[in-house]
Structure formats: structure tokens, C-alpha cells
Amino acid sequence: MIHTAGGNAYPMPATIWLPALVKALATALIVVSASAVAEALGPFWGALIASLPVSAGPAYVFLSMQHGEDFVAVSALNSFAANAATGLFLIAYGLLAGRLSPGRSLGIAVMVWLAGGFITQQIIWTPSTALLMNLIIYGAGFMLLDTKERAGIKPAAPAPRRWYDLPVRALAVAAFVSVVVTISSMLGPNVTGIASVFPISLISLIVMVRPRIGGPAASLLATNALRAMLGFGIVLLALHLAVRPWGATAALVLAAFVSALWSGAMLLLRTRHQAG
Questions:
Q1: Per residue in 210-266, pLDDT tens?
Q2: Domain assignment of residue 15, yes or no
Q3: Per the domain annotation, does 88 fall within a domain?
Q4: What's the alpha-carbon Rg for the chain, to the nearest Å?
């Protein structure tokens, strides 16, 4: 795209619009894929796919291109701290999904995240304090949402899907993500870090699958997502710790490796649990 200024044409930097476009498309793809998998294979697999850093990863690639390593380091630390708010979101939804209507349960969970994100913004975080906060909240979530007690929950019979459901919802997700990323790119590293982990993928996934699998199974999806999102927080911590001494490229590669390692560990533990 070409802009003009004073009669001279100059190209618009791709990094202005690419982050929003890539994250929007990536999020739409992952949400549609996760919803299909959750319906076909169960809440565990849908939650695992939705928690992959498919949308946050490209966002941090472009942040490193636009702002440099210091900006990425600060943003990643604040993202890690705000990941605790995502834990609160999942806990709230897991407790309410089987008891309240779809709109009320999701609305309350989103308000819980917003309150947690606001509090996060008021605090100056260190890696140690952010890690402690995540461990406390996710540990509480593991106790409150016990998957063993609800292992027998089965998804409800899904309503018939119209041919345009997935394309329309994917476009809606992409548009929503584009707005969030565009706005967050105008903010400083602290707020950008918090905004970048707003649980768009999880919210969109819940909206898509709740009518098809029912409230109890959607609650179980949130429970499974707790373990996956704790791993996502560890990925952000690894990125924060590695980006300054190693550079953005090496830090992003390390973060991707940590993400794959955590997902592999979750699959291994699930396999052993089923075998036992």
C-alpha cells in the first residue's frame, strides 16, 4: 500500500497492518479447528488446541520487529502476570457453565478477567512475583475444578450445523481480533502485554461449542484449559527471561520449544492416566 505526503509517495510499512491480520487469521483458524476437535474428540483436545500460542506467537514476532527486545521483554512479563487473570476467567467459567445460562456464565467470566487484568496493570511485576501469582491462582483452580470428579461428563447431542456457521464465526473472530491488536499496538509495553493475552481464542471457542456440547462439557473444557494455560504462562516467562541475553529470534524459538514440551507432557500424562 502506498501513502503520499507532500507529493511524494512512500510505502506503508507492512508491520503496521500485518500483526493484526496475521493474529486475526491465526486466531480464527485455531478457534474453528479447536471447536471441531472438541466436538469430535472431547473437551481435553479442544482446550489443548485453543491454548497453543498460535495467535500470541505471531503477535510477539511483530512486536520484536516493531519495538525491539526491551519492549518484548516488558510485554512478555506483563503477559505472564496477566495470564493469572486468564486462570481466574477459566475458574469462573468452569464453576458457572453448568449452572447458569451461556450468556451469564461467559459474561461473568469475562468481567472476572477484566477485573484481574485491571489489577495486574496497577502492579510492577518481577518474574518471581508473576510466577508466584500464577502458581497460586492455577493451583486454586486445580483444587476447585477437579476433572476426576467429572470424568463421566459427555457432550450433549449437538444441534444441526448450518453450512455457513463456521465461516461466519471465523470471520467474526478475525474481525474482533483485528480490532484488539490494532488498538493494543498504540499502547505501551505494559498494557500491550496485558491486552495480548486477553482470552479471545478461549472466549470464541466457548461461544462456538457451548450450544453444541452443552454446559457441563463446556465447564470441563475450561477445566482442561487450566493446565494448558499454565503452560502458556511458562512460555511467556521463558520469552521474558531469554529475549534480552539471547535476542528475539532465539527467545522466540525457545518459547516455541517450551510450548511443544508442555503440550507433549500433557498428552503423556493423559495417556498414562487412561492406561491406569
A1: 877 788 888 888 888 898 899 999 999 999 999 999 998 899 899 889 988 888 888
A2: no
A3: yes
A4: 19
CB crowding 212-242: b at 16 or more within 10 Å, else e = bbbbbbbbbbbbbbbbbbbbbbbbbbbbbbb
Judge whether 253 lies within some domain.
yes
- Is 156's pLDDT higher than 80? no
Number of domains the chain is built from: 1
**pLDDT, the chain, mean:** 76
Whole-prediction pTM: 0.77
- CB of 224 closer than 8 Å to CB of 45: no
Residues 7 and 213: their CA atoms lie apart, in Å, by: 58
The DSSP H or E segment spanning 4 is strand 2-5
- Among candidate residues 41, 98, 50, 53, the one with its CA nearest the CA of residue 274: 41
What's residue 151's pLDDT? 47
Q: Give the mean pLDDT of 145-153.
A: 55
Hunting for cell 486468564 — which residue is that?
Answer: 86
Closest CA to 30 of 45, 11, 14: 45
Residue 186 pLDDT greater than 60, yes or no: yes
**Domain boundaries, position 244:** 30-144+164-275
d(CA 150, CA 173): 30
End-to-end CA distance of the chain: 58
User: What count of other Cβ atoms lies within 10 Å of the Cβ of residue 108?
Assistant: 15
DSSP states along 206-260: HHHHHHHH-HHHHHHHHHHHHHHHHHHHHHHHHHHHHHHHH-HHHHHHHHHHHHH
Identify whether 155 is part of a domain: no
For residue 9, list its beta bridge partners: 4
